[in-house]
Amino acid sequence: MNTGAAWAVRQDWTTIPSEPIAEGIARQMMWGDRVMVCRLTFAPNVVTAVHSHPHEQIVLVERGRVRFTVEGRDYIASAGDIIHFRSGCEHGAAILDEGAVLIDIFSPVREDFLPKPHQ
């Protein structure tokens, strides 16, 4: 959901559509001109590949436990933890037994995540 030209927009995650983006991963999104928030719901034991991107990223662990691999080192994060990945930082995640919900905040907006215009 794009917040458009409004000065402020209030949303509830229950009103934002969820889209499957990979096996065991569903994503909800809200974005403005310079920031994007994604809520990701992961099934247990999902692993995301180690990757990097030019966007700064902050991850809030809403529910569950996650083993993050950051620049070759592993860290366990659980509900309430906040992780900051600087631009270009190599990182990946392995969702532990109970599944997880993560809130990802990106700046600038991840253009590659935006819906494609209809042809």
Word description of this protein:
By secondary structure, the chain is mainly β. The chain has one domain: Jelly Rolls (Sandwich). It has no helices and 8 strands. It has strands at residues 19-22, 25-31, 36-42, 47-51, 56-70, 73-78, 82-85, 91-107. β1 and β2 form a beta hairpin.
Task: Give structural attributes.
Jelly Rolls; 0% helix; 119 residues; single chain; eight-stranded antiparallel beta sheet; 55% strand; mainly beta
Structural class: mainly beta
The geometry reads as: globular
Average per-residue pLDDT, rounded, comes to 93
Q: Determine and state the CATH class.
A: Mainly Beta
Quick one: CATH superfamily?
Answer: Jelly Rolls
Write the layout of secondary structure elements.
Blueprint: E1 19-22, E2 25-31, E3 36-42, E4 47-51, E5 56-70, E6 73-78, E7 82-85, E8 91-107
Antiparallel strand pairs: 1-2, 2-3, 3-8, 4-8, 5-6, 5-7, 5-8
Q: Care to give the gist of this entry?
A:
The protein has no helices and eight strands. By secondary structure, the chain is mostly beta strands. The two termini are 19 Å apart.
